[in-house]
Amino acid sequence: MKNILIVGGAGYVGGAITDLIQQANYNVRVYDALLYEDSFRKPVDFVYGDIREYEKLKAQLKWADAVVWLAAIVGDEACQLNPELTKSINQDSVGWLADNYNGRIVFMSTCSVYGAQNSELNETSPTNPLSLYAETKLNAEKLLKHKNSIIFRLGTLFGVGDLYSRIRLDLVVNILTVRAFVEGRISVYGGDQFRPLLHVKDVARAVLMNLESENNGTFNLARQNVRISDLAYQVRMHFPDLKIETTNRTFQDTRNYRVSSKKAEDIFGFKSIHSIDEGIEELKHLVETRRIKDLKSPRYSNQAYLKEHYEELMFKVFKEVEVA
Predict the structure, then answer these.
(1) Would you tell me how many other CB atoms lie within 10 Å of the CB of residue 285?
(2) b/e per residue 223-261 (b: at least 16 CB within 10 A)
(3) What does the alpha-carbon distance between residue 272 and residue 270 come to, in Å, rounded to a whole number?
(4) How far, in whole angstroms, is CA 119 from its chain's centroid?
(5) CA distance 19 to 206
(6) What are the residue ranges in the chain where pLDDT is below 50?
(7) Beta-strand (E) ranges in the chain?
(8) Checking DSSP bridges between strand 224-227 and strand 194-199, what pairing results, if any?
(9) What pLDDT is recorded for position 313?
(10) Structural domain boundaries in the chain
(11) Which CATH architecture does the domain made up of 3-323 adopt?
């Protein structure tokens, strides 16, 4: 196995995966519509395209020994902007992939499929998707059930993945760090809800470990389960003057879940090596050294950017698909 196609490889997760797979001496090709990016400047073979341009994508699949499928509209609020489009991209395109590709598939799902549950959850626990995002990801998992596929249910990501791709500032560790620097205070709503956290570079490690493995099925991936309130105080360890405001007002995001990654540990030896403190320090360095020009730019939030550029982006995407 030599040729690896990374669909959505120009994004936040794709940047880290592309770098690590290329360093392992595979032939890497990125297929991406550059939804959030202005350019792709890595010295990597690149094909510009939408995942619904099926004929264009089919030609790339013929080249690939394995496909890492990252392309999706990510996040609850971003997915709600256009439910029909979300279903087309997050679910229907995966069904097309299952029907048209018989090689190795590495697919990214989400621990959001568990919804709100109080016990620590493993891959056999009941699912309870509370959003369109989680629902479409769970449906996509089912479409890959009988393929040579490994599916990663990712925890909430954090940290810096590479030097080029857009950083995401709509993820809890990243945004709390930025707010600690910019505002000197952070507000915690409730705070008892848990999130399983995972550094974006640890996702890349799990992918590399399984490009040629015989492991199929679903695997949770997380470093540790953390209460949001505890995370706020962990951020304060890096910003000693930070003020933390807590309120009992219920936050609109009702997700609450803890997951076990024991299956991944037992079957392919996965163990996170990048800590939450490391991720906080990465973001702290970016903001303190002014390496992000405008921290308030909607570009760094999936929902905010898609909402602001919705008509422009949708016209562009639909026009390209129609022409193809």
Answers:
(1) 11
(2) bebbbbbebbeebbeebeebebeeeeeeeebebbbbbbb
(3) 7
(4) 24
(5) 13
(6) 318-324
(7) 3-7, 27-32, 45-48, 66-69, 104-110, 116-121, 149-154, 156-158, 185-189, 194-199, 217-221, 224-227, 243-247, 256-259
(8) antiparallel
(9) 60
(10) 3-323
(11) 3-Layer(aba) Sandwich (3.40)
